[in-house]
Design a protein that fits this description.
Nuclear Transport Factor 2, Chain: A, 4 domains, alpha+beta, about 325 residues, 6 helices, rod-shaped
Amino acid sequence: MKNELNCNIVQDLLPNYIEKLTSDDTNHAVEQHLDTCEDCYKVYEQMAANIGNTEKVPVIELKFLKKVKRTRLLAAMLCVILTLVLSWVIYTSEYNFANDKSHLAAGITEFIAPSEPSVNAYVLETKEVDGLLFATFKDQERTNINGIAILDKGFNQRYRILSARIRSSDYSSVLQILPITINNEPYYAISGYNLSDEIKYYGLDFYAYTKPGDLAKDRVRKVIKFDVENQQFLEIISAKEIEINFENSIADTFYNPRLDTTSMYDADGKEITDNFKNQENSGNQVRTNLEKAELFLLYVFIAIVMGLGVIFTRYFLTE
């Protein structure tokens, strides 16, 4: 084969020879020819130089592609982080109240301002039941103006205001009862503040009927009494429990009992409610119920942010 090779054959073999794709016998024959043929050797040098440059190109491209891939991964990670942060910011903008009386007072004042701008809330007592926080409050200037705010607990252990009810009282010692709902069950929030030392019991006053029906002549007032342990308190009691308490406390049979109001009693069990009648506040009546919109829009905004985050993340991860 060594004697048969001519310049055309050698130059045809050179690309494979340079890339080491030829056999040992062919390599030996090509090398012998290059040693004796100056023209083929020059072609070999030029071809080797060109092929050498083309071998460097994939290395440069590979480094560039690795850099691009790394940049895309970083962009995708940043997109995920920004999506989570923005979603959390939207969520915490709604659930932003701590279980702190001064913080709650400021939030309640802001919440009720559109309807009752003159009320500056001062939180009296708080109590949490099944993820709901109940906060009773009064106006800082007019102590007979009072109410209760209901707040929902979020994942971040903070609260958003669901509703607020504001009432006024004609008494200097204030005892209010407000119907509420917990887990779709009826409850009552019983709030007392500025209670006189004379008040040892408070009563829940029912109107009931001695006979079936609702004739006025058959209607009577019946009271179940509870100890007053503190001059300021908040109790959350289920309507069912109050109903059972009424049935156990009243010996006779009554029909259609309905909780209506409250009353106050001294140590001897004598009613002293009228002793605390405050004529100065009798004309200052307030009765307001405020409800906050559901969380639908909040979750819509979070869903939009999460959706955009998924789109951009997939874009950065797609080659």
